[in-house]
Write a structure and sequence with these properties.
This protein is of the alpha/beta class. Helices cover 52% and strands 13% of the residues. The chain folds into 2 domains: 213 residues, HUPs (Rossmann fold, 3-Layer(aba) Sandwich); 80 residues, Uridine Diphospho-n-acetylenolpyruvylglucosamine Reductase, domain 3. This is tRNA(Ile)-lysidine synthase.
């Protein structure tokens, strides 16, 4: 029996672990762009012996994107994937820059396809290198613990089984299997921050600190994510303990540890309707000042036109019409 090349074995083992909890007859969809990471992921998922389908998303942002999507779909059908879908999306009118808009449209299309097809999971090809880039970008942007926790292994139906696999290994796996990956020009376009980190920052870090720096950054994300999960659970209970008839009790909030209190305020702001994507550190800091830095200041302005003021010993939502 021919020996399985180590990179191929690494990808297959990661996929097997990532799907181990699913029923044997569950349908798994692979999100595949045709790049090395998602091709290696798709091949490993197909090798697992499970019911595996494939979805490729055409964002329409590059010349020839429709042709590329058809090529990926044709390969998938020949390889035995069933079902195979091409999802065509538009990023027009979506918030954020091109990357954020494309991501929003892509995840919506994948979720819709999974629901329609009755899939139990959608697997994504993000690697350890992607995780390291995410941590560095979050650090540069002051993302705090939530940002430093990186991409989760699992969120809802989405799974990322390759977060412990190096990008170099997905490329080697494709080479060993005779797969020809598509090279996305966006990955080398310096207009995108992630591309600049990939091309300039990570190589410098590896040169200065050794190849282990990528695994260490990824491991940091895993550790921080575990801490976040624990703090979020504590803050959910703490929020219930500080509720008052009017809103939130200031004395009760003041008795909480700062790390718990900030999460309580963030969670409450979301309850009031503040969009999570727009709720920033500064907004929570302004709420915090109503508790621990009270000087008779005016209300805190939250995204979505929400105002929160201190009234005696409570934080309460107030109607803008009654603010002079």
């Amino acid at each position: 029996m021919a020996k399985i090349p180590p990179p191929v074995a690494a990808v297959r083992m990661a996929v097997r672990r990532g799907l181990a909890d699913l029923p044997e007859d569950a349908l798994v969809l692979v999100a595949c762009s045709g790049g090395a990471d998602s091709l290696a992921l798709a091949s490993a998922a197909r090798f697992s012996g499970r019911r595996v389908g494939l979805v490729t998303v055409d964002h329409g942002l590059q010349e020839g994107s429709e042709r590329r999507a058809r090529s990926v779909a044709a390969w998938a059908r020949d390889a035995g994937f069933d079902p195979v879908r091409i999802e065509t999306v538009s990023v027009a009118g979506l918030p954020g820059g091109p990357e954020a808009a494309a991501r929003t449209a892509r995840y919506a299309a994948l979720a819709s396809a999974a629901t329609e097809l009755g899939a139990s999971a959608v697997v994504l090809g993000h690697t350890r290198d992607d995780q390291a880039e995410t941590v560095l970008l979050a650090l540069a942007r002051g993302g705090g613990p939530r940002g430093l926790s990186g991409m989760p292994w699992r969120r809802g139906m989405f799974r990322r089984p390759l977060l412990d696999v190096a990008r170099a290994d997905t490329r080697k796996a494709c080479a060993a299997l005779g797969l020809a990956p598509w090279e996305d020009p966006h990955n080398t376009d310096p207009a995108y921050a992630r591309s600049r980190v990939r091309a300039s920052v990570l190589p410098v870090l590896v040169d200065a600190l050794g190849t282990g720096v990528l695994a260490n950054l990824s491991r940091t994300a895993t550790l921080v994510a575990a801490d976040n999960a624990a703090l979020d659970e504590l803050s959910a209970a703490a929020l219930e303990s500080v509720r008052s008839a009017a809103g939130l009790s200031v004395p009760a909030l003041a008795g909480l540890l700062p790390a718990i209190r900030s999460r309580v305020l963030h969670r409450w702001a979301r309850e009031l309707g503040a969009p999570g994507g727009a709720l920033a550190f500064g907004h929570v800091t302004t709420l915090e000042a109503l508790v621990s830095g009270w000087r008779g200041q005016g209300p805190a302005h939250l995204p979505g036109g929400i105002l929160v003021a201190r009234r005696s010993d409570d934080l309460v939502r107030v109607d803008p019409a009654f603010i002079s």
